[in-house]
Amino acid sequence: MHKLIKNLLNEKNSINSCLFLIFLTLNVFQPLCADDINRSIIAAFYHHTVLQNLISDYKGWTGRMSAQFLVYLFFNQPYETIILPIFNGINTVLLVILYNLVYKVASQRKYSTGSFLFFIFIFTLFLYQTGFLRNALWKTGALQYFWGVVLIVWFLQKEYFRINQDNNHFLLSFAVGIFIGLYNEIFFASLLITYVFSLFYYRFIKNNYPGIISKDTFFFNSGNILADLVLVIAPGNYVRKHVVDASTPTMNICSSLLHLGHNVLNNSFLISIFVVILFFVLLKKTPKEEKKRRTLAILALFFFPIALLLVFLPISTFGFEERMLLLIYTFAILLFLHNFSFIFSKVIFSKKSTITALVILNSLLFSIILYGYYTLYVFNNNRIKQISEKSLAVYKFSEYVRPAGLTKLIYFDDITTDPKIDKNINLANYYGVKEVILVRNS
After folding, report:
1. Is 318 helix (H, G, I), strand (E, B) or coil?
2. How far, CA to CA in Å, does 284 sit from each of 273, 290, 340, 382?
3. What is the mean pLDDT of residues 410-425?
4. Distance in angstroms (rounded) separating the CA atoms of residues 417 and 425
5. Which of 124, 156, 157, 187 has minimal Cβ neighbours within 10 Å of its Cβ?
6. The pTM is what?
C-alpha cells in the first residue's frame, strides 16, 4: 500500500495525472458534430447491424474495416450516455500515452521533471499549430486517424528508435500490423515508413543498421501486407472515388501528383522541421563523406511525405484534408526530437527556477486551450437547452464563433443556412425535430 501511494505521488505520475484530467475535460467539452451525428443515428451496435454495415461499406464505400468497426461501436445514440464517457476516457488515455511515447524518443528514455515539462510545452504547441489536437479531440477524427497514429508511434519507438529492447511481442505486432493495414488507406503507407525509415535512419544517419529485422518487425509487416491487400481491393474504395470525383473538377494523374505535392511542400511547418534537421547535420563536425551521406538521407526524408501520399493515390479522392497529414506530422516530429534529444539532458532542466517557470508556462497554455473548448461546450449546451425548452417547427441556431486567435484549436463543423443539406437533416433527425437552420452572425 505504501509503495502504491509513493508511486502515485511521484512527479511523473502527478504530471501524467494532470494531463489526464486536462484531456478528459477537453474530450467532454468537444461535442458531437459533422460525421459523428450521422453515425450516431445509424446506431449499428444498438441495432445489431455492425457486420452488415461493415460489409456494405466494404462493397460500396470504403475498405477501412478497423476504423469503421470502431465508429459503429462508439457512435450509438441510444447508448450515448454510457458509450461516450467510455470513449472520452479511452481517447484521454491515448493522448497521455502519445505524450509519453514521444517523450521517450525525445529524451532517450532518460526522465527528468524539468525536461518532461519542457517537452509537454513544446509538444502541445506542435499539436495545436498543426491542427493535430483538434482532430484528435473530434470523435470521428480520433477513431479514424488518431488511434491508429498512436499504434504506429508505439511500434516506431519500440522498433526503429530502439527505445524498448525486448522483441518478444511478435503476436501482438502481427495483430497491430493487421489492424493498421485495415485502418485507413492513408495508413497503407505505414509499411513503407517502417522499412524506408529504418533504411535511411540506421544506414545513413546512425550508420549501424543491424541488417536482420527483428521478429516483431517481420510479423508487423506480414500482418500489414495481408491487411493492406484486403483494404486496397475493397470495391468500396473505387465506388467512393467515383462518387467524389463526379462532384469535383476532373484532375488527371499529373495534376493530382502536383496537387498533393504542392499541399505538402507548401506546409511551412513540415519544411521548417526538415530544414532545421538538415542544418543540424551540415553544421555538425563530422567527416566529409559521412556528412554527405547524412545530407542525402535528410533530403530523401524531406521528400518522403510526398511519397507516402502517392502510395494511396490510386484509391484516394483528390480532396486534401488536414487530418491526412497527422501521420506525416508525427513522423516529422519524431525524427526532429530524436535528432535533438541532447537538449533534454541539459542541466538547466534540473533547476527549481526552471521547473517553476515551465509549470507556469504549461498552466497558461492549457488554460487558453481549456477556455477555447469551454466556449464551445457552453455554446452547444445552449443549443440543446433551446431545443428542450421550446417546441418549434423550425429551429434557428446561432453560429459558433471561435475565440480570437484560437481558430486552429477547435474542430466544429456546423450545419448550414440550407435546411435541405445533409448536415442539417442529420442534426434535425438526431434531435428529433422537423428542421434546423443556421443563422449567420451579422
Report:
1. coil
2. 17, 11, 12, 57
3. 89
4. 12
5. 124
6. 0.83
- Report how far residue 198's alpha carbon sits from residue 361's, in angstroms, rounded to the nearest whole number: 36
DSSP string, 8-77: HHSHHHHHHHHHHHHHHHHHHHS---THHHHHHHH-TTTTT-HHHHHHHHHHHT---HHHHHHHHHH--G
- Beta-carbon contacts of residue 226 (< 8 Å; ≥ 6 apart): 177, 178, 181
* Residues 414/376, Cβ–Cβ less than 8 Å: no
Nearest residue to 187 via CA among 219, 217, 227: 227
Listed residue (196, 190, 278, 276) closest to 227, CA to CA: 190
H helices present in 108-207, as ranges: 113-129, 132-137, 139-141, 147-159, 170-181, 190-198
User: What is the chain's percent helix, strand, coil content, to nearest 5?
Assistant: 75, 0, 25
For residue 394, list its beta bridge partners.
Answer: 435
The grid coordinates of residue 302 equal 524531406
d(CA 70, CA 139): 11
Max CA separation in the chain (angstroms): 77
| pLDDT tens digits along 361-394 | 999 999 999 999 999 999 999 998 888 877 877 8
135/34 Cα distance (integer angstroms):
12
CA distance linking residue 160 with residue 201, whole number of Å = 9
Looking at 133-137, 163-167, 229-233, 381-385, which range is the least confident one?
Answer: 163-167
- Distance, CA of 266 to CA of 259 (rounded, Å): 10
Nearest to 15 by CA among 123, 138, 130: 123
* Rounded-to-integer distance, Cα 70 and Cα 363, Å: 33
Report residue 420 as a C-alpha cell.
435541405
Residue 315 has pLDDT above 50, yes or no: no
Say which residues have a Cβ less than 8 Å from residue 426's Cβ, sequence separation at least 6.
37, 38, 41
Nearest residue to 61 (alpha-carbon basis) of 38, 80, 79: 38
Residue 15, CB-side half-sphere exposure with 13 Å CA sphere? 22
